Every structure is written in C-alpha cells, then in structure tokens.
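Model it.
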Amino acid sequence: MLRLLAGEAARRFGGRAAVVTGSTSLSFADLDRFSDQDPGTEAGLGLGTRPDDPPEDAEESVGRPRAGVDVSIRDGEGRILPDEDQGEVLLRSEAVMSGYVGKSPDHAVFARDGFIRTGDRGYIDHTGRLHLVGRVTGS
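Modeled.
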C-alpha cells in the first residue's frame, strides 16, 4: 500500500512525496523503500525524527518529542512511569485540544495536569524515543 501511495504522490507532485503513517513505526522493508527519498519521520503533534537523526530512530520508534511537546507514560492509576516501563501515552502541547465543546462523556481523556490520554500503549527508551506497542485495554 505504501508503495502505491508513494508512486501516485510522486506522479502527481513531480517526484516529491510525503508518506504518512500513524500509531506505529515503519517496518524495515517499508523504510528501505523510502530511505533514499527523505528518511525523516514526523508526527503532527511534535514527535518524530529528522534526516540528521540516527537511522535507528525511524527504524525502531516514532521519534523524540520536539520543543513544546511533553510526553508522559502512565500506569492505570495515572502515576508517571520510569523510562523503559510500558504504560499509556499521554501528550501535552499547544497543538493538542484542550477540551470538548459542551458536555461530553469523553472528558476522561483529559488528565488533571493538561495531558490528553491517547489510548496508545508505549514506553520511552533510555535515549528519549517513544515506542508504541499497542492500545490500552478498553481504548
């Protein structure tokens, strides 16, 4: 599928294409297909890798938080977990919504400290890279 998308984007836009994936890192095979184009990855909310980052950042993770983005890994009780421990991924930045309009039953996605619960399960490794491993049960 990625090959089809990249080929169509290159045809339409003169050889330059952006390939966007969400909620996981690319497989090594898929990454190899695009590594000669632009090996950077970027998440819209401020996580990602840049072309000058080590290749393993894009190969093994979704990258590191950029300036203005806070990532927190928490257990089921909302306690912050240490690096390498898996838990729910929470984000806080100016790009993350601050709430729902009106009364919504989805208010539980917001932590008291301004973080939003993503429903993703992951961990931060010893280098600060975020790894996603699945979804939190019940999300």
